[in-house]
Amino acid sequence: MEIKDIIATIKKEKPNVKSVYYVGCGASQAELYPAKYFLEANAKALRIALYTANEFNYATPKGLNEDAIVVTCSLGGTTPETVAASKLAMEKGAAVIAITNNGESPLAKACHYLVVHNWEGSYSAKMDKMNKALLIAVEILNQYEGFETYDAMVNGCNSIYGIIDEAVKSVLPEAKAFADSYKDDEVIYVMSSGATHKVAYSFSICLLMEMQWMNSGSFHDGEFFHGPFEITDKNVPFILLMNDGRTRAMDSRALTFLERFDAKTTVIDAKDFGLGSLLPGVAEYFSPMVISAVLRIYAEQLAIVRNHPLTKRRYMWKLEY
Amino acid sequence: MEIKDIIATIKKEKPNVKSVYYVGCGASQAELYPAKYFLEANAKALRIALYTANEFNYATPKGLNEDAIVVTCSLGGTTPETVAASKLAMEKGAAVIAITNNGESPLAKACHYLVVHNWEGSYSAKMDKMNKALLIAVEILNQYEGFETYDAMVNGCNSIYGIIDEAVKSVLPEAKAFADSYKDDEVIYVMSSGATHKVAYSFSICLLMEMQWMNSGSFHDGEFFHGPFEITDKNVPFILLMNDGRTRAMDSRALTFLERFDAKTTVIDAKDFGLGSLLPGVAEYFSPMVISAVLRIYAEQLAIVRNHPLTKRRYMWKLEY
To answer: What sequence ranges are listed for the domain SIS (chains A, B) (predicted)?
Structure first.
């Protein structure tokens, strides 16, 4: 079923939805963030929250009931906590939409509505998960509350794949330079703001810590000046993800500070890929997708120079834990 | 005015409040988190969100209007972003409650209702900010929606100071051992769950990065198994903050993993201070206060052995940025 039709079907059954809960783990939680961010910023009546799955399972919010929509997400559809959360949400009477790459997975079977996303084949395919989550949010907002920028958002959701395919063509030299420069660093900090905030988080915990066993921390760059910036010094390594949108002033302020004190700074800037002119008025919500896709190439180059494939794990998928 | 009376006054003027926004920066944002967590978990109709102040200023949520309560927080009451957010919220017609230690500060003048919290004098005084924010949430919930555990929560808010004063008496030996053991570490990870999630964050970005210039990262311990745990190895330094409440299973799972692989692990456990028996049914919401107070002693000991006072800064309060 098309996403638009899924929401229309839910609305027929549940015309008075109050709460929208997003539930996932790790990268999948982070990839729900742009949708959560968009909806929290633009909804006038809907209640919005984002949970790591076991937080949702153990301390279940009282708003989880028949007036809720729950969007769960897991790439392979096997994350036990997320499958449990999806089942719990169904038991509580919520309408449950699961987003997964595997339409036969346990998660795909623990939902009312299944959204299968692409993954393999291109950098833009890897952003299909984040984009479909965002489109679900756009449809929820428009159908339940109305949304004046609906057409621009839907156009963005349709156009973003081509924009990403174009963006990733040019970044290999910068990605190689990044990998050479950061490969031996003892810790790498990643920061951003706006809808891209959790891209910084997922690059830190998944690409660097999980897939490269490199030390890392992440935080919102608006928070940078309220603590973390005291770590800044010549050659301390940072990655700054700059949005094309309203929160860019925070990104720029952080960049000015990093440059002033000669930190080792790598910038991935949505503006470099023309997002603002391609998607006027809504570029900020698509910044995380372009930046994530570009970051994937940076991670691949880091994996090559460090001789540590992105697929290499010591615990994940290997042990019971 | 008493907090209970503040909310009663707001309710008279605004009987149909829809949204409660929490706004602060750095530690003050983190100290609003238990209140936000409590309200998000227990409210059936109210919409809840927490913002770093400039995110609120630049990408102001559409729900900020005359049907909103905004709670802003800044220790000294001078944080420019938070003062701006407080003014913005007043302009938009929201009821604005400011929490600050300085009743004459710019923030104290940019609000409808002022809540002055204690700070100096004791470890429990330092938790007054977090506790008053929580009490505001309890009153909002009870007066707007009703809340069956209201009495237990109010009792907790009243009793927690004595519980903290007692808790901190016994921890100096462990704090000294922690300081000796972690003083030369290149990076320290901090994690927790539930209402204590952001205590891990603030210890990481404020106590370690800001006040000790030590590298650090933090994440939710339910997320640990979805990325960060691949960094675990013999002697990799972690601080695990364990809650006395529903999310403890996540904390315990992380502890089991850290011990299994001989990570360098320091645990601050709310259960060690009898929280569950002292505050039956609501201990989870007070875990962050006891743990934060204890952590303060750990930070003080770290500062002593590293000969780096907690007051020492190179940028904050010294430069324009």
So the answer is: 6-146
